[in-house]
Amino acid sequence: EAQVTQNPRYLITVTGKKLTVTCSQNMNHEYMSWYRQDPGLGLRQIYYSMNVEVTDKGDVPEGYKVSRKEKRNFPLILESPSPNQTSLYFCATSQGYATETQYFGPGTRLLVL
Amino acid sequence: AQSVTQLGSHVSVSEGALVLLRCNYSSSVPPYLFWYVQYPNQGLQLLLKYTSAATLVKGINGFEAEFKKSETSFHLTKPSAHMSDAAEYFCASPRGSEKLVFGKGTKLTVNP
Q: Is the Cβ of B104 closer than 8 Å to some Cβ of chain A?
Protein backbone atom coordinates (compact mmCIF):
# COMPACT_ATOMS: atom_id res chain seq x y z
CA GLU A 1 0.00 0.00 0.00
CA ALA A 2 1.29 3.44 -0.98
CA GLN A 3 2.01 5.33 2.21
CA VAL A 4 3.50 8.44 3.72
CA THR A 5 4.22 7.94 7.39
CA GLN A 6 5.13 10.50 10.01
CA ASN A 7 6.41 9.97 13.51
CA PRO A 8 5.55 10.92 16.10
CA ARG A 9 1.92 11.82 15.53
CA TYR A 10 1.74 13.88 18.70
CA LEU A 11 4.55 15.55 20.60
CA ILE A 12 4.73 17.82 23.62
CA THR A 13 8.14 19.30 24.33
CA VAL A 14 9.79 22.24 26.02
CA THR A 15 11.54 25.25 24.58
CA GLY A 16 15.06 24.52 23.41
CA LYS A 17 14.91 20.73 23.41
CA LYS A 18 15.96 19.45 20.00
CA LEU A 19 13.51 17.23 18.22
CA THR A 20 13.14 15.41 14.93
CA VAL A 21 9.94 14.53 13.10
CA THR A 22 10.43 11.72 10.64
CA CYS A 23 8.76 11.31 7.27
CA SER A 24 9.01 8.22 5.15
CA GLN A 25 7.43 7.25 1.83
CA ASN A 26 7.29 3.96 -0.07
CA MET A 27 6.30 5.35 -3.48
CA ASN A 28 9.80 6.07 -4.78
CA HIS A 29 8.87 9.74 -5.15
CA GLU A 30 11.56 12.28 -5.87
CA TYR A 31 9.86 15.37 -4.44
CA MET A 32 9.21 15.69 -0.72
CA SER A 33 8.19 18.69 1.32
CA TRP A 34 7.19 19.85 4.78
CA TYR A 35 4.30 22.17 5.64
CA ARG A 36 2.95 23.68 8.79
CA GLN A 37 -0.74 24.31 9.21
CA ASP A 38 -1.96 27.06 11.48
CA PRO A 39 -5.55 28.27 11.96
CA GLY A 40 -6.41 31.04 9.53
CA LEU A 41 -3.11 30.72 7.69
CA GLY A 42 -3.63 27.54 5.71
CA LEU A 43 -0.59 25.45 4.85
CA ARG A 44 2.78 27.08 4.46
CA GLN A 45 5.75 25.32 2.96
CA ILE A 46 8.79 25.02 5.22
CA TYR A 47 11.31 23.13 3.09
CA TYR A 48 11.25 20.96 0.03
CA SER A 49 13.56 18.45 -1.60
CA MET A 50 13.70 17.63 -5.26
CA ASN A 51 15.92 14.60 -4.81
CA VAL A 52 18.55 13.06 -2.58
CA GLU A 53 20.93 15.69 -1.22
CA VAL A 54 18.90 18.48 -2.88
CA THR A 55 16.90 20.64 -0.49
CA ASP A 56 15.72 24.23 -0.52
CA LYS A 57 13.78 26.69 1.57
CA GLY A 58 10.06 27.18 1.32
CA ASP A 59 8.21 30.21 2.60
CA VAL A 60 8.76 29.73 6.35
CA PRO A 61 12.12 27.98 6.89
CA GLU A 62 13.32 29.90 9.97
CA GLY A 63 13.99 27.63 12.92
CA TYR A 64 13.89 24.41 10.90
CA LYS A 65 16.41 22.13 9.22
CA VAL A 66 15.98 19.17 6.91
CA SER A 67 18.12 16.52 5.32
CA ARG A 68 17.61 14.09 2.46
CA LYS A 69 20.18 11.36 2.64
CA GLU A 70 17.89 8.65 1.28
CA LYS A 71 15.12 8.96 -1.26
CA ARG A 72 12.44 7.60 1.05
CA ASN A 73 13.17 9.72 4.14
CA PHE A 74 12.92 13.45 4.76
CA PRO A 75 13.21 14.31 8.46
CA LEU A 76 12.32 17.73 9.85
CA ILE A 77 14.63 18.95 12.60
CA LEU A 78 13.88 21.62 15.15
CA GLU A 79 17.20 22.28 16.85
CA SER A 80 15.86 24.73 19.44
CA PRO A 81 12.07 24.69 19.37
CA SER A 82 10.16 27.76 20.48
CA PRO A 83 6.46 28.18 21.33
CA ASN A 84 5.77 29.85 17.95
CA GLN A 85 6.59 26.51 16.35
CA THR A 86 3.57 24.95 17.97
CA SER A 87 1.64 23.76 14.96
CA LEU A 88 0.36 20.85 12.88
CA TYR A 89 3.03 19.57 10.53
CA PHE A 90 2.52 17.65 7.31
CA CYS A 91 4.95 15.86 5.10
CA ALA A 92 4.02 15.45 1.43
CA THR A 93 5.52 13.67 -1.55
CA SER A 94 5.01 13.61 -5.29
CA GLN A 95 6.49 11.94 -8.32
CA GLY A 96 7.41 15.16 -10.08
CA TYR A 97 7.78 18.38 -8.15
CA ALA A 98 5.10 20.84 -7.12
CA THR A 99 3.11 20.55 -10.35
CA GLU A 100 2.09 16.99 -9.56
CA THR A 101 -0.39 15.55 -7.10
CA GLN A 102 0.90 15.70 -3.56
CA TYR A 103 0.42 12.75 -1.20
CA PHE A 104 0.22 13.82 2.40
CA GLY A 105 1.14 12.11 5.61
CA PRO A 106 -1.29 12.00 8.53
CA GLY A 107 0.27 14.96 10.32
CA THR A 108 2.26 15.59 13.49
CA ARG A 109 0.76 17.82 16.14
CA LEU A 110 3.51 19.63 18.05
CA LEU A 111 3.13 21.62 21.24
CA VAL A 112 6.16 23.56 22.47
CA LEU A 113 5.86 24.80 26.05
CA ALA B 1 4.57 35.57 -7.85
CA GLN B 2 1.81 33.01 -7.98
CA SER B 3 -0.70 33.19 -5.15
CA VAL B 4 -4.16 31.84 -4.47
CA THR B 5 -6.94 33.51 -2.52
CA GLN B 6 -9.89 31.69 -1.04
CA LEU B 7 -12.87 33.86 -0.31
CA GLY B 8 -14.69 32.85 2.83
CA SER B 9 -12.96 31.01 5.65
CA HIS B 10 -16.25 29.36 6.63
CA VAL B 11 -19.14 28.26 4.45
CA SER B 12 -22.29 26.70 5.81
CA VAL B 13 -24.89 24.93 3.66
CA SER B 14 -27.85 22.68 4.22
CA GLU B 15 -27.74 19.06 3.21
CA GLY B 16 -28.82 18.82 -0.42
CA ALA B 17 -27.94 22.43 -1.21
CA LEU B 18 -25.37 23.65 -3.71
CA VAL B 19 -21.80 23.91 -2.50
CA LEU B 20 -19.70 26.77 -3.90
CA LEU B 21 -16.18 27.37 -2.61
CA ARG B 22 -14.24 30.20 -4.19
CA CYS B 23 -10.62 30.35 -5.29
CA ASN B 24 -8.89 33.07 -7.28
CA TYR B 25 -5.33 32.85 -8.55
CA SER B 26 -2.82 35.44 -9.62
CA SER B 27 -0.74 34.41 -12.54
CA SER B 28 0.06 35.80 -15.96
CA VAL B 29 0.45 32.33 -17.42
CA PRO B 30 -2.00 29.42 -17.29
CA PRO B 31 -1.35 27.82 -13.95
CA TYR B 32 -1.65 24.39 -12.48
CA LEU B 33 -4.44 24.51 -9.92
CA PHE B 34 -5.47 22.00 -7.28
CA TRP B 35 -8.23 21.51 -4.78
CA TYR B 36 -7.39 19.41 -1.74
CA VAL B 37 -9.74 18.28 1.02
CA GLN B 38 -8.89 17.70 4.65
CA TYR B 39 -11.31 15.64 6.71
CA PRO B 40 -11.15 16.05 10.48
CA ASN B 41 -7.93 14.74 11.99
CA GLN B 42 -6.56 13.59 8.64
CA GLY B 43 -4.01 14.69 6.10
CA LEU B 44 -4.96 16.34 2.84
CA GLN B 45 -6.03 14.42 -0.23
CA LEU B 46 -6.47 15.50 -3.80
CA LEU B 47 -9.99 16.42 -4.87
CA LEU B 48 -9.19 17.54 -8.40
CA LYS B 49 -6.53 19.13 -10.56
CA TYR B 50 -6.48 21.57 -13.49
CA THR B 51 -3.70 21.19 -16.03
CA SER B 52 -5.13 23.19 -18.98
CA ALA B 53 -6.48 20.08 -20.74
CA ALA B 54 -10.10 21.05 -20.01
CA THR B 55 -11.65 24.03 -18.29
CA LEU B 56 -14.23 21.95 -16.43
CA VAL B 57 -12.53 19.46 -14.16
CA LYS B 58 -14.37 16.65 -12.42
CA GLY B 59 -13.08 15.29 -9.18
CA ILE B 60 -13.95 12.75 -6.57
CA ASN B 61 -17.16 12.62 -4.55
CA GLY B 62 -19.18 14.61 -7.10
CA PHE B 63 -17.09 17.78 -6.94
CA GLU B 64 -16.07 19.76 -9.97
CA ALA B 65 -14.30 23.03 -10.67
CA GLU B 66 -14.29 25.37 -13.62
CA PHE B 67 -11.23 27.28 -14.73
CA LYS B 68 -12.17 30.80 -15.87
CA LYS B 69 -9.22 32.72 -17.19
CA SER B 70 -11.19 35.96 -17.61
CA GLU B 71 -12.04 35.91 -13.93
CA THR B 72 -8.77 34.26 -12.75
CA SER B 73 -10.96 31.85 -10.81
CA PHE B 74 -11.14 28.15 -10.11
CA HIS B 75 -14.24 27.77 -7.95
CA LEU B 76 -15.23 24.39 -6.54
CA THR B 77 -18.84 23.24 -6.76
CA LYS B 78 -21.04 20.32 -5.88
CA PRO B 79 -24.73 20.30 -6.80
CA SER B 80 -25.97 18.62 -3.64
CA ALA B 81 -24.12 18.67 -0.34
CA HIS B 82 -23.89 15.58 1.80
CA MET B 83 -23.10 15.43 5.49
CA SER B 84 -19.87 13.61 4.65
CA ASP B 85 -18.64 16.66 2.71
CA ALA B 86 -18.01 18.52 5.95
CA ALA B 87 -14.27 19.22 5.84
CA GLU B 88 -11.74 21.93 5.14
CA TYR B 89 -10.96 22.64 1.50
CA PHE B 90 -7.75 24.13 0.16
CA CYS B 91 -6.95 25.61 -3.21
CA ALA B 92 -3.28 25.37 -4.23
CA SER B 93 -1.00 26.30 -7.09
CA PRO B 94 2.70 25.85 -7.76
CA ARG B 95 5.05 28.80 -7.74
CA GLY B 96 7.40 27.77 -10.48
CA SER B 97 7.84 24.01 -10.48
CA GLU B 98 9.37 23.70 -7.04
CA LYS B 99 7.20 25.45 -4.49
CA LEU B 100 3.53 24.92 -3.77
CA VAL B 101 1.34 27.70 -2.42
CA PHE B 102 -1.93 27.03 -0.61
CA GLY B 103 -4.86 29.26 0.08
CA LYS B 104 -5.91 29.76 3.68
CA GLY B 105 -8.65 27.20 3.46
CA THR B 106 -12.43 27.16 3.64
CA LYS B 107 -14.17 25.15 6.29
CA LEU B 108 -17.41 23.67 5.01
CA THR B 109 -20.21 22.88 7.44
CA VAL B 110 -23.19 20.86 6.24
CA ASN B 111 -26.36 21.24 8.29
CA PRO B 112 -28.99 18.51 8.41
A: yes
Yes or no, beta carbons of A104 and B100 under 8 Å apart: no
Mean pLDDT of chain B: 92
**DSSP state string for chain A:** ---EEEE-SEEEE-TT--EEEEEEESS--SEEEEEEEETTTEEEEEEEEEETTEEEE-S--TT-EE--SSTTB--EEESS--GGG-EEEEEEEESSGGGS--EE---EEEEE-
More confident residue, A97 or B49: B49
Query: How confident is the model at residue B28, as a pLDDT?
Result: 66
Tell me the C-alpha distance between A32 and B52, whole Å. Answer: 24
Question: B91 near B102, Cβ under 8 Å?
Answer: yes
For residue A3, give Cα distances in angstroms to A27, A47, A57, A94, B55. Answer: 7, 20, 24, 12, 31
Q: How many CB atoms lie within 10 A of CB B36?
A: 25
Arithmetic mean of pLDDT, A23-36: 96
B98 and A48 in contact by Cβ < 8 A? Answer: yes
What is the C-alpha separation between B90 and B97, in angstroms, rounded?
A: 19
CB-CB contact of A105 with A26 (8 Å)? no
Lowest mean pLDDT among A82-96, B9-23, B51-65: B51-65
Q: Among A27-31, B25-29, B69-73, which stretch is predicted with the lowest mean pLDDT?
A: B25-29
